[in-house]
Amino acid sequence: MNAIVLMVIGLGAxxxxxxxxxxFISDRIFRLDPNFETPAHTLxxxxxxxxxxxxxxxxxxxxxxxxxxxxxxxxxxxxxxxLPAFLWVVFGTVFFAGVHxxxxxxxxxxxxxxxxxxxxxxxVGARARSLFMVVIFLLLLMVNAVFAIVIAGLFVDFPSxxxxxxxxxxxxxxxxxxxxxxxxxLLWPSxxxxxxxxxxxxxxxxxxxxxxxxxxGLAPAGQWVIVLFAYAAVASLLPVWVLLQPRDYINGLQLxxxxxxxxxxxxxxxxxxxxxxxxxxxPGDVPPLIxxxxxTIACGAISGFHGLVASGTTSKQLDNEKDxxxxxxxxxxxxxALALAAILxxxxxxxxxxxxxxxxxxxxxxxxxxxxxxxGYLINQGLGLPIHFGETLLxxxxxxxxxxxxxxxxxxxxxxxQEWGVIYQIKALTGRVVxxxxxVAACVALAFGAGGGAGTGGLVIWPLFGTTNQLLAGLTLLxxxxxxxKKGRRTIFTMVPFAFLLVMTVFALLWQLADFWRxxxxxxxxxxxxxxxxxxxxGLESLGALMRARRGDxxxxxxxxxxxxxxxxxxxxxxGAGS
Length: 579
Prior knowledge:
The chain is mostly helical. It has one domain: Amino acid/polyamine transporter I. The chain has helices spanning 3-30, 39-42, 54-65, 69-77, 82-109, 116-123, 126-157, 162-180, 187-206, 220-237, 244-269, 289-296, 304-312, 323-348, 353-359, 368-383, 387-423, 432-449, 462-486, 492-518, 522-552.
């Protein structure tokens, strides 16, 4: 199979999905209203609620959801062959992820920017809300701990990525200051920032940086984990316009340029996909294709984490409800393109089938290293750039997106702890600093819990990450379906993906439960059971709410709280935001 054929089919499907299917969903199902006054305006506080230019917000949303997972998942899943991974990424992105991401964003915007967990109370009930928030917190714990470990591993394995990965923070701070304090238009800061970012990659390639072999008993990976969480704690407390928005925006531009470089390299190199379409010679530790494919590739096909970002931070910054389609659906399309690049890098980035089989000797053999090494080879073959520089480019890409996901993830954990403080009337938990410190402490404890100074403890629960992620996506679709049902709208476009995810993820959870028990991994058995019970409980309560809504057949109430006042607001010359 020629890699160009797969690339054209995949990108073509994504483009058609955005042009046609997303328009249908936005106009006929969600019925996006340009005159609806969003929470970014009604609750504007200059910290979390900030009306934002849709391009900047798209950059924040896209890079927050496009962490390491859309690389790791496909890079592991191709061990079953390229065909199952390719089909799930393409169909999942168009018919599952886009609807899920846009739906979660729309539902939150229509309910004062509430997170999907808090929204569950008004839609389903208080008990479901409490259980849902437990699942959400566990997922965020996994995301933040594991992504910190992934970044630390990349810094150790590819020290040339260190300088450009940290330099982007200074660039982002400069963009935020120029846009929001000096009123500069978006174009020239974007161009200058990209030039500086790529120049820093050449510097990093020439001056690789490594940490000492040991500091107070910590190996380099452990040292990086501590540094990363210290940064994430500070970043999560800053107003979104200072660092989060501009960093995510410039990272979004960098990703699309990086993807363009990669896809052009594929066109010029014209490589062959050496991996088999269906691998019949699987290593002994590889689990069954069904249902594990659908939880191994979560981000890149559909991901519950996207709903947390959409309802946790993005909804608080949406300037106009019509931007839901651009930010939500197109954000998922961008992640699908990243997953497609990972599939191509890990199947066509090897010279021969024997070389590919020599790399994929176990289920854990894939991941970011396969993407970086395979992609570096393709960039060398297509563009003639040194393999080492191509690897630096892709390693920096992976680091930047995993880091922005951590930024957003820690902020979301802070929100949940603060919500718990309000719900249970624990005033100390409602403070931004205390809640942030608790969130970071939990992540650090998990990261070091089983790995000591190596900082690899977070990988212990990685097998549960994909399953929990997909269960959360299914529950989010179910909550959106309840809202649609109450408004008298069709739910088939959200209920079909929900039903598919529910069957596959519960099947995977049960399979993993038996596997953990056989391997005497009792901590994972406990986590698995906790997630399974909470999911079934929330699911049953949500289905009950769905049936009640079906019998009641509620419709839109134009006089409801948060309904837009007559007329359209004035626009700000700075961000395109209303005033």
